[in-house]
Amino acid sequence: MSKAFVREGEGDDDGDGDDEELARPRSPYITPEGARRLQDELTHLWKVERPRVTAEVTAAAAQGDRSENAEYQYGKRRLREIDRRIRYLSKRLDEVQVVAPSREQEGRVFFGAWVTIEDEDGLETTYRIVGSDELDLARGHVTIDSPIAKALLGKHVGDEVLVVRPRGPKEYTVTSIVYRAG
Fold it and tell me: Could you read off the pLDDT of 69-105 as tens digits, one per residue?
């Protein structure tokens, strides 16, 4: 049966839902901190979360009729989600290339840099250029594939940058470039 005719959550339960996450174009680069976070998540899922959920499913299965057992059904679904995420993280960690800053980068914007920019109104914003797996706007992390990062790459302090945004172009001035962990 075609997946087009199957409601979400039904049908193909082989746990191979990685396709959606992997289908998006992703930069192969990641910071050392980002790689460590992905590895920590993989380790936690494999050594803590999966054994805990497996024990819960086993206990629920022991209660009898599995077709009417909500705890068993939920546990099996959660186990499939965990396995899917484990497969995705394992594949992704094999694909990524860890990029650590080097001395030659000092003074210019490259991958991993913390860049402070100022707009025409004097408002300063700081971003860190990271890989697609590390996107976190609340922490100021933007992907290397974003319009702002593409415009900033290779720039020096004092350079003016025109960023083409969905809301229209905006001009910024680079005020600071720092390479630090975090």
Answer: 889 999 999 999 999 999 999 999 999 999 988 878 8
Cβ–Cβ < 8 Å for 115, 174: yes
- CA 113 from chain center: how many Å? 17
| CB-based contact 162:148 (threshold 8 Å) | no
Residue ranges of alpha helices (H) inside 70-176 are 70-95, 147-152
Domains of the chain: residue spans and CATH: 13-98 (1.10.287.180), 103-178 (3.10.50.30)
127 burial class (0-12, 13-18, 19+ CB within 10 angstroms)?
buried
Q: Is residue 10 very low, low, confident or very high in pLDDT (cuts 50, 70, 90)?
A: very low
pLDDT band at 65 (very low <50, low <70, confident <90, very high): confident
From CA 152, how far away is CA 146, in angstroms rounded? 10
Strand, helix or coil at 16? coil
Task: Give the largest CA-CA distance in the chain.
Answer: 70
As a dihedral over the C-alpha atoms of residue 61, residue 66, residue 71, residue 77, rounded to 10 degrees, the angle is 100
How does pLDDT run across 97-106, given as a tens digit for each residue? 999 888 788 8
Cα separation, 24 vs 18, whole angstroms:
11
